[in-house]
Design a protein that fits this description.
Strand order of the largest sheet: 3-2-1-4-5
Number of domains: 1
Oligomer: single chain
Number of strands: 5
Radius of gyration: 15 Å
Number of helices: 6
CATH superfamily: HUPs
Helix content: 40-55%
Bound molecules: 4'-phosphopantetheine
CATH architecture: 3-Layer(aba) Sandwich
Length: 162
C-alpha cells in the first residue's frame, strides 16, 4: 500500500490545498494530511479547528486521513509507514525553500521521496495568509476556501479582531 503524507500548517485549508489533496488521493492508496504542531508560526486557528476544517472538506475522499504531528517529518512518516511527502508548488518563489526541505528530508531519510505537485493555475495566487487578510478586511472568501467552512472562518476572524 502506497501511503503519502501532505504536511503543512493549513491555517486554514484553502481551495488550493484541497485541489492538491484531491489530485493526490487519485495517485496514492492513502493520503494523510497532517498538521505540524508547535510550528514557529503563531496560527490563527487552533489545531482542532484546522483538523475539523480539513475533515469537513475531505469527507467525500475515502482514502484521505487527517492527523497532526510534532518533531521531524521523516520520523512521523516512518511511524505511519508512509514513503512519499507531497508538497504543492504555486510559483518559482516556492521552489527554493521546498527544494531545501526536500534535500534535508532525503538526507535524513534516503528512502523517503518528496513529490511536488503543481497547483492548478486558478489557485496559484492563493495562500492561507491571503485568505486571512481578505477575511480580516471584509472581502468575499467564496472561491478562496471551500464553501462549507467560510462561515466558521469569518466568525473566527471577527472574534480574533475583538
Ligand atoms: O504549510 P507550511 O507551514 O509551509 O508547512 C511546513 C512544514 C510543516 C511542511 C515543515 O515545516 C515541516 O515539515 N516541518 C517538520 C519539521 C521537519 O521535519 N523539518 C525538516 C528538517 S529541518
Amino acid at each position: 500500500m502506497k501511503i503519502a503524507v501532505y504536511p503543512g500548517s493549513f491555517d486554514p485549508v484553502t481551495n488550493g490545498h484541497l485541489d492538491i489533496i484531491e489530485r493526490t488521493s487519485k495517485v496514492f492508496d492513502k493520503v494523510i494530511v497532517s498538521i505540524l504542531l508547535n510550528s514557529n508560526k503563531v496560527p490563527m486557528f487552533t489545531v482542532e479547528e484546522r483538523m475539523d476544517f480539513l475533515r469537513q472538506v475531505t469527507k467525500k475522499l475515502n482514502n484521505v486521513e487527517i492527523d497532526c504531528f510534532s518533531g521531524l517529518l521523516v520520523n512521523y512518516m516512518k511511524e505511519k509507514s508512509a514513503t512519499v511527502i507531497v508538497k504543492g508548488l504555486r510559483a518559482v518563489s516556492d521552489f527554493e525553500y521546498e527544494f531545501q526541505m526536500a534535500l534535508v528530508n532525503n538526507k535524513l531519510s534516503p528512502d523517503i521521496e518528496t513529490l511536488f505537485m503543481m497547483t492548478s493555475s486558478k489557485y496559484s495566487y492563493l495562500s492561507s495568509s491571503i485568505v486571512k487578510e481578505v477575511g480580516r478586511l471584509g472581502g468575499c472568501l467564496k472561491e478562496l476556501v471551500p464553501e462549507e467552512i467560510i462561515f466558521e472562518i469569518i466568525e473566527k476572524i471577527r472574534k480574533t479582531r475583538g
